[in-house]
Amino acid sequence: MSRTDAVFGALALLAAIVFPWLAGFRGTLPNVALYVGIYMILALGLNVVVGFTGLLDLGYVAFLALGAIVTALLLSLTRTESGIDWAIGVSHDVVGEPLLGFDGAILIILLAAGLACALLGVLRGIPTLRVRGDYYAIVTLGIAEILYETALWDDTNLLNFTRVTGGAFGIKLPSSHVPHLFGQKLYYDQPVFYYLVLALVVSAFLLTHHLNRSRVGRAMAAIRLDETAARACGVDVSRHKLIAFAVSGFVGGIGGGLYTLWSGTVAVKGLDVWQSILILCGVVLGGMGSIRGTAVGIAGLMCLGELLREDFGGVSVPPEARFLIYGLLLIIVMRFRPQGLLPPVRRSRAVTDAEHAALTTGHARLYDLRAPAGAAAAAGADAVEGT
Q1: Full-model pTM
Q2: CATH class of residue range 21-348
Q3: Confidence of residue 367 (pLDDT cuts 50, 70, 90)
Q4: Domain spans of the chain?
């Protein structure tokens, strides 16, 4: 990270900290900021696979949905007189105390949602290790659609998942089961929830940044550039792909858990493949592989979506037409700036004289850059005769 990036990052963090105190926590703008922050976490997770590893993932909504469902399920666990039950997919209210109602339990719940999605990422990635390009995109899309349709199964199917996912009606989180942190309920208009989301956004930034600069990140970059060449150079392609899938799923699961807290309702019907396309559009718009570009791209796209909900002089954009506007915006950006708004910066420097001498005089394992003395003398003689 350059000094300029660090300065701009510090200024952006300071603005995010001060912003709700100026706009008010219960206004529309802080609520939109929460919405943008949650999707920023999701986009940073998707960027690990799409940007760092170079694999087109069209089924990322599966992590959003699983993280949201796991969070809602754990929050709905209730200690009753007859044991432990949960008020999901039933017509009556379960009377009792929340099983995970202690202060700070949400941190454990978010961790559990992230780990569940990391496991899903690995399980989904194992059968796709040897699939590349468009075939990988089709497989991820197909798996996401299978999970989406399965989550909606009711008592008319072989398996009934309404007791876990809520079926077509979704999961409504009871007010008594809303978790609290530092003594405050995590409602969308509470300062503690805003700063929890902000802290997790910063954590996602740091996680993806250090991953990108690590040895594992360099191996992912080699896979992105040429998987065959990376394998020939000794990179364990399968292992590093699974790491990318696990990290991407973990970050996506945490984003899904925050989505549950923000909305208060988890409706599987609203978490279809278009959510994957929306997050992917934000990554492409900002610049695949660029952490700051991903943040700017998804923030701009989500803010544009909120603006399109407003009426301008009695004229509004129908919800069905928003993706047409997103597509038009992407076409314009790809036409005039195909690398994205803020592409990753490749920083390099010239080799110093000392490093050049060490390279030419040292013993290389695969190559010897020193020319034999006889060959050098023959080359000098040929040069003299040529003149």
Answers
A1: 0.86
A2: mainly alpha
A3: very low
A4: 21-348, 355-386
